[in-house]
């Protein structure tokens, strides 16, 4: 199982001072590890309180030189969709918070070891080493808190750690800035050693380092995505309001976190289907709600299809979506045939059934396009109204009149006045010549 840094964020309050800092994040995934390193300077004896459910790393909050407080917190097995976290202080102060979200970490009792170290005023941060770890290949996160009159940069980072520059937080605007920085190593050995580094900047006071080491997700297995409903159906009236969205549930029944994305392939039309969220992180054994929505827009009446696939590179699950835009007209049968003789009686009329199949009432009109001849075909009624899912019997008649022998064709088109759906029926009329009188003569000898 590999660790993956899902997102890095910061929060701070500068010279204005405040009793809390809010870290605004992208929507968090399910079953992930959240880590925050909090730095407070210029105020002594500050108690830092994390949001409900967060766990402080170490038994005491670090204090350096009597005028700063530093603490690291974590939240295991995160809830999906959260977008902000508030860290509170016992007095108003200037502070900075570094935040990270990780997948691939154990969801239960993930913290293996931690160690904190307070350092005198210096331009370097010495290393600290934990006791023996439960296993190799664990995730080490090292937080460095410091106060400085200007923004510091870090170099000569050792022990294969990476500085997470996206999580570098500082309370800019304050005379003495609170600064918080996180470094990480995604594969530490039997005992974890935090990185050493050199600070470049002005006015550094004493610093505090806190190292925390986390276990990987159990089993080293793989994710397995499933959905509760493999198909969804929507309907709407052409030019009308969008239908209500519907929720499906995406599940990870595997033994490892799934970092998934959604993609949609259209069978007809394009752009009319929305899926939210379109990506995320889902811990082993967890699930999340997915909202599907359809946009009517300028879609013509008809039936539209699409397939949305959720995939993490190891497993996938698909949902087929059908969107019916009505009203939709249909006829049965699709064709009618008549026959008569020249100058003879008209053939008996036949019935066609006109239907609305999408569940939306509409008025309708009709027209006739002749392929040969003209005026020999009529229908009754030639217009009318259909209830939602309603039907109407249409009488179709042919007139022999003065038609000469031959085959005559025409197409009847029914048109919905709402949305413009059409349905057609082909008509063939065969007119035969009159039977000639035939006589039989007997010969006599």
Task: Pick out its properties.
single chain, 445 residues, mainly beta, Immunoglobulin-like, 3 domains, seven-stranded antiparallel β-sheet, six-stranded antiparallel β-sheet, 36 strands, disordered C terminus
Structural description of this entry:
The radius of gyration is 38 Å and the shape is rod-shaped. Helices cover 0% and strands 57% of the residues. With 445 residues, it is mainly β. It has three domains: 4-219, no CATH class; 225-326, Immunoglobulin-like; 329-432, Immunoglobulins (Immunoglobulin-like, Sandwich), CATH 2.60.40. Strands 1, 2, 3, 4, 5, 6 and 7 form a seven-stranded antiparallel sheet that branches. Strands 8, 11, 13, 14, 15 and 18 form a six-stranded antiparallel sheet that branches.
Write the layout of secondary structure elements.
Blueprint: E1 4-24, E2 33-41, E3 48-49, E4 55-56, E5 62-63, E6 68-75, E7 84-103, E8 111-119, E9 124-125, E10 129-132, E11 138-148, E12 153-155, E13 162-163, E14 169-170, E15 177-188, E16 191-193, E17 197-200, E18 207-214, E19 225-227, E20 231-237, E21 246-252, E22 258-266, E23 273-276, E24 279-282, E25 287-294, E26 302-311, E27 316-326, E28 329-332, E29 335-341, E30 350-356, E31 362-370, E32 377-380, E33 383-386, E34 391-398, E35 406-416, E36 422-432
Parallel strand pairs: 20-27, 29-36
Antiparallel strand pairs: 1-7, 2-6, 2-7, 3-7, 4-6, 5-6, 8-18, 9-17, 10-16, 11-15, 11-18, 12-17, 13-15, 14-15, 19-21, 21-25, 22-24, 22-26, 23-25, 26-27, 28-30, 30-34, 31-33, 31-35, 32-34, 35-36
């Amino acid at each position: 199982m590999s660790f993956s840094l899902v997102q890095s964020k910061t929060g701070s309050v500068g010279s204005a001072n405040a009793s809390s800092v809010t870290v605004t994040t992208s929507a968090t995934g399910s079953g992930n590890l959240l880590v925050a390193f909090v730095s407070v300077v210029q105020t002594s004896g500050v108690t830092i309180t994390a949001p409900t459910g967060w766990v402080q790393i170490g038994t005491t909050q670090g204090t350096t030189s009597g005028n700063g407080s530093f603490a690291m917190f974590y939240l295991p097995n995160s809830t999906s969709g959260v977008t902000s976290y508030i860290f509170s202080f016992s007095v108003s102060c200037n502070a900075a918070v570094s935040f990270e979200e990780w997948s691939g970490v154990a969801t239960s009792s993930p913290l293996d070891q931690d160690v904190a170290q307070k350092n005198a005023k210096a331009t370097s941060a010495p290393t600290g080493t934990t006791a023996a770890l439960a296993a190799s290949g664990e995730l080490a996160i090292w937080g460095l808190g410091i106060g400085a009159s200007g923004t510091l940069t870090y170099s000569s980072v050792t022990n294969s750690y990476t500085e997470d520059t996206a999580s570098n937080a500082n309370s800019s605007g304050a005379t003495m800035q609170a600064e918080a920085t996180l470094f990480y190593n995604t594969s530490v050995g039997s005992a974890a050693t935090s990185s050493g580094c050199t600070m470049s900047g002005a006015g550094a006071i004493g610093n505090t380092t806190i190292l925390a080491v986390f276990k990987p997700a159990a089993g080293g297995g793989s994710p397995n995505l499933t959905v509760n409903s493999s198909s969804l159906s929507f309907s709407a009236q052409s030019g009308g309001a969008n239908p209500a969205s519907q929720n499906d549930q995406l599940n990870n029944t595997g033994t490892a976190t799934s970092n998934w994305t959604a993609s949609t392939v259209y069978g007809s039309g394009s752009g009319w289907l929305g899926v939210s969220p379109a990506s995320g992180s889902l811990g082993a054994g967890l699930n999340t709600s997915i909202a599907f929505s359809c946009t009517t827009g300028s879609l013509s009446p008809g039936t539209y299809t699409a397939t949305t696939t959720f995939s993490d590179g190891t497993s996938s699950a698909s949902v087929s979506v059908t969107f019916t835009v009505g009203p939709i007209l249909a006829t049965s049968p699709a064709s009618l045939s008549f026959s008569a003789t020249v100058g003879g009686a008209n053939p008996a009329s036949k019935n066609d059934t006109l239907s609305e199949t999408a569940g939306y009432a509409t008025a309708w009109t009709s027209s006739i396009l002749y392929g040969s001849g003209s005026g020999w075909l009529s229908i009754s009624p030639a217009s009318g109204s259909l209830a939602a899912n309603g039907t109407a019997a249409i009488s179709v008649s042919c007139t022999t009149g003065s038609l000469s022998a031959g085959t005559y064709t025409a197409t009847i088109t029914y048109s919905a006045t709402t949305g413009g759906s059409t349905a057609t029926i082909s008509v063939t009329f065969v007119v035969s010549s009159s039977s000639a009188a035939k006589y039989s003569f007997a010969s006599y000898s």
